[in-house]
Automatic annotation (TrEMBL), chain A:
<dbReference type="GO" id="GO:0012505">
    <property type="term" value="C:endomembrane system"/>
</dbReference>
<keyword id="KW-0997">Cell inner membrane</keyword>
<comment type="similarity">
    <text>Belongs to the NqrDE/RnfAE family.</text>
</comment>
<keyword id="KW-0472">Membrane</keyword>
<dbReference type="Pfam" id="PF02508">
    <property type="entry name" value="Rnf-Nqr"/>
</dbReference>
<dbReference type="InterPro" id="IPR010968">
    <property type="entry name" value="RnfE"/>
</dbReference>
<comment type="subunit">
    <text>The complex is composed of six subunits: RnfA, RnfB, RnfC, RnfD, RnfE and RnfG.</text>
</comment>
<keyword id="KW-1133">Transmembrane helix</keyword>
<dbReference type="InterPro" id="IPR003667">
    <property type="entry name" value="NqrDE/RnfAE"/>
</dbReference>
<keyword id="KW-1003">Cell membrane</keyword>
<dbReference type="GO" id="GO:0005886">
    <property type="term" value="C:plasma membrane"/>
</dbReference>
<feature type="transmembrane region" description="Helical">
    <location>
        <begin position="174"/>
        <end position="195"/>
    </location>
</feature>
<feature type="transmembrane region" description="Helical">
    <location>
        <begin position="21"/>
        <end position="38"/>
    </location>
</feature>
<feature type="transmembrane region" description="Helical">
    <location>
        <begin position="100"/>
        <end position="121"/>
    </location>
</feature>
<protein>
    <recommendedName>
        <fullName>Ion-translocating oxidoreductase complex subunit E</fullName>
        <ecNumber>7.-.-.-</ecNumber>
    </recommendedName>
</protein>
<keyword id="KW-0249">Electron transport</keyword>
<keyword id="KW-1278">Translocase</keyword>
Length: 218, 196
């Protein structure tokens, strides 16, 4: 019974999503909302929280129902479960703040096709106890939110000179507008990945990759 | 927005509001399948085809949803619809054109989770496009996606041959390239008459 192989709940269950397997920076999953809604820190935070909710709720339900779902239709079932929770959060955000709803636009509904959520449902939630699945999903959600904030913060800071809507640099700041436009999303995420790659490379400087064997073109 | 002319919709979605480079839809295949030109082009064409089929079906199913007054089921209906459209395309291809089926391989089922398809269905509903407008919108989105992924594959093939600092090899560089492409496509902004 591999289902019961490792049932202990550890700090690792939560923290792997935060850093070691960060969905955005390490696994490069769910890039569309990452780039599309991070033109300000507030949008980034809202998107992160909405995704976390869907992750946790669908993780719980999938984990509870896993043994009753026939193997052949499991993906379709997961998708329907996820779509249900996304519809919930979509109407909730619309009820709480119409401004936010308009800023995020269709990207709330597009959480359905965020590969992180389906990936977690298939690879983790369906094979683990509900509690563990929920903790792991919360960790992944936190990691996702963290990554969104990293991007949203930098883009808002450079592109509008503010953070969470507060003006930081005073009236003489000349905003770098391209950063809040689409190209900025690509460039800032590329910049973060460069930084992390550089840090990782410094970490293993003692054992360099053999020539010709690189990470390019995964 | 429902009064947009067909040529405006087409040019706008191909260039000014390119699905990949301006609206960030369908980034996973854009980054994942753009390593080689010979896989990028079939991927683009397959996606275009699925876009056309699912746009048609989404238009039809939205009429039913509105008629029955159950629009809150739209998301679930669209997702189920796209999954079955992909499945149908896969089965039809397998039967009538095994060569093309083998060429596309794993990419076909992956199209289901391509957010450009769902995004397309949702956007055409929000904008209230009629039947022909939806079709042209889907065609434009598909052509735009193909254009972006082919350009990217061409760039990455060139880069694979050049000497780069080892840090920049990997996803970071692809994203930087994407940023530059996106900057270039911003130059078309006047063509579409702003964001829409």
């Amino acid at each position: 019974m591999s289902r019961r192989r490792d049932d202990r709940l550890t700090w690792e269950t939560f923290s792997e999503g935060l850093w070691r397997e960060n969905p955005v920076f390490v696994m490069l999953l769910g890039m569309c909302p990452v780039l599309a809604v991070t033109n300000s820190a507030v949008n980034a935070l809202a998107m992160g929280l909405a995704t976390t909710f869907v992750l946790v709720a669908s993780g719980l339900l999938v984990s509870l129902l896993a043994r009753y779902i026939p193997k052949q239709v499991r993906i379709a079932t997961y998708i329907v479960i996820i779509a249900t929770f996304v519809t919930l959060i979509d109407y909730t955000i619309q009820a709480i703040s119409l401004d936010l709803y308009n800023a995020l636009g269709a990207f709330i509904q597009l959480i359905v096709v965020n590969c992180i959520i389906l990936g977690r449902a298939e690879a983790y939630a369906s094979r683990n106890r509900p509690l563990k699945a929920v903790v792991n999903a919360a960790g992944m959600g936190a990691g996702f939110t963290f990554a969104l904030l990293c991007l949203g913060g930098v883009r808002e800071l450079l592109g509008a000179g503010s953070l969470f809507g507060f003006d930081l640099f005073g009236p003489n700041f000349q905003p770098w507008v391209v950063m809040v436009l689409p190209p900025g999303g690509f460039l800032v995420l590329g910049g973060w990945l460069l930084l992390f790659d550089w840090l990782k490379q410094r970490g293993r400087e003692t054992e360099p990759l053999p020539r010709g064997e690189t990470l390019h073109g995964r | 927005m429902a009064a947009d002319s067909l040529s405006f919709i087409f040019l706008n979605t191909v260039l000014a509001n390119n699905f990949v480079l301006a609206m960030f839809l369908g980034l996973c295949p854009f980054l994942g399948v753009s390593g080689k030109l010979e896989t990028a082009l079939p991927m683009g064409l397959a996606t275009t085809f699925v876009m056309l089929v699912s746009s048609l079906c989404a238009y039809a199913i939205n009429l039913v949803l509105v008629a029955l007054d159950i629009e809150f089921l739209r998301l679930i209906a669209y997702i189920a619809l796209i999954a079955s459209a992909v499945q149908l395309v896969e089965m039809a291809l397998k039967k009538y054109s095994p060569v093309l089926f083998r060429a596309l391989g794993i990419y076909l089922p992956l199209i289901t989770t391509n957010c450009a398809i769902l995004g397309l269905a949702l956007f055409q509903t929000f904008k209230g496009y009629d039947f022909t407008q939806s079709l042209v919108y889907a065609l434009g989105a598909g052509v735009g996606f193909t254009l972006a992924i082919v350009l990217m594959a061409g760039l990455r093939e060139k880069l694979a041959l050049s000497r780069l600092p080892s840090v920049t090899q990997g996803a970071a560089l692809s994203l930087m390239l994407g940023g530059l492409l996106s900057l270039t496509f911003m130059g078309f902004a006047g063509l579409g008459g702003g964001h829409g």
